[in-house]
Amino acid sequence: MKLLITGMAGFIGHAVAKRLSGAGHSIVGIDNLNDYYDVALKQARLDDLASCTDVAFLPLDLADRAGIATLFEREGFDRVIHLAAQPGVRYSIDNPHAYVDANLVGHLNILEGCRHSRVEHLVYASSSSVYGANDKVPFATDDDVDHPISLYAATKKANELMSHTYSHLYDLPTTGLRFFTVYGPWGRPDMALFKFTRAVLNGEAMEVYNHGQMSRDFTYIDDIVEGIVRVLEVVPTPRGSTEVTTDTASAPYALYNIGHGSPVSLMDFVRAIEKATGKQAICEYKDMQPGDVPRTWADTDALYQATGYKPQVQVEEGVRHFVEWYRDFYRV
């Protein structure tokens, strides 16, 4: 198949491209290589893919309407894995326009490209952030998500609504994946594991929010990638829709949680980092930050029913792999 991967210089995009390379596909990846975090790390991910002869990279911004349209017209993709976005809950408070450009305008441009090129299946990244401060756990895809507490979450919910519209109007099969706290080698520097590991190895204090009273459904990168690859093959049909309401069940649309399915307390996560590094963490406890949530927990039954896959990697093992990568990559 001819595949497009957006955000290929990103954490998940790089991992998906590497996993699919050698599987008989022709892969094109795009990314705008913005400076939200260290561009050198993004370039290093692309360099890691340089030996993959079936993977090509093009620098391109999602918000470039003409550029995205030309890309779809020229390449004739069979399926699309849309992972590019402006991430981060906290960053969205100070930089809202970046989220509109990448997550709303950019998502629309991808939908338009898929529509006009008659793409067989669009798989796109949503987020567990759409659940906001929901009290009911575990979070299920039929829960109420109409009360986001960050602009990032609002844009991801909007992506789901936009995708459903295109599925309904144009018979475009779309599948949204609500990611739950992805971590592992080549991860993002703005994520807790990266920041905590750097602080522990440097003997520096690290900021622990809500005084450590938080939990996350940490999901290892290999498990996320396996889920994405399997979902790519499960093209939704109107009969197979995961929608609950009968008035919208005619669309070839699906939505799944993709997480480990077992939350881990933040302090247990810190202890896993201590064990992997052999050093003690210096914790500086802080109040909860605006837009953040105390816990996440994925109900992954629907994903298992669709793909037959459940995550395999436990937090202690996953953290160890990340620390090994970090030490090697940064020579520490």
Give a quick summary of the entry.
This protein has 332 residues and is α/β, with parallel strands linked by helices. It has helices at 11-20, 39-48, 65-75, 91-94, 96-117, 151-170, 192-202, 221-232, 266-277, 301-307, 315-330, and strands at residues 2-6, 26-31, 55-59, 79-82, 121-127, 174-179, 182-183, 205-208, 215-216, 219-220, 253-258, 264-265, 282-285. The protein starts with a strand and ends with a helix.
Please specify the SSE layout and strand pairing.
Layout: E1 2-6, H1 11-20, E2 26-31, H2 39-48, E3 55-59, H3 65-75, E4 79-82, H4 91-94, H5 96-117, E5 121-127, H6 151-170, E6 174-179, E7 182-183, H7 192-202, E8 205-208, E9 215-216, E10 219-220, H8 221-232, E11 253-258, E12 264-265, H9 266-277, E13 282-285, H10 301-307, H11 315-330
Structural description of this entry:
The protein has helices at 11-20, 39-48, 65-75, 91-94, 96-117, 151-170, 192-202, 221-232, 266-277, 301-307, 315-330; strands at 2-6, 26-31, 55-59, 79-82, 121-127, 174-179, 182-183, 205-208, 215-216, 219-220, 253-258, 264-265, 282-285. It is built from 11 helices and 13 strands. It is α/β, with parallel strands linked by helices. The strands form 4 sheets. The protein has a 7-stranded parallel sheet, sandwiched between helices. The protein has a two-stranded parallel ribbon with strand order 7-10. A two-stranded parallel ribbon has the order 8-13. The protein is globular and about 55 Å long. Helix content is 41%, strand content 17%.
Uncertain residue ranges: 243-248
- The SSE string, one letter per element, is EHEHEHEHHEHEEHEEEHEEHEHH
Number of extended strands? 13
Total number of helices: 11
Structural class: alpha/beta
Q: What is the mean pLDDT?
A: 94
Helix content: 40-55%
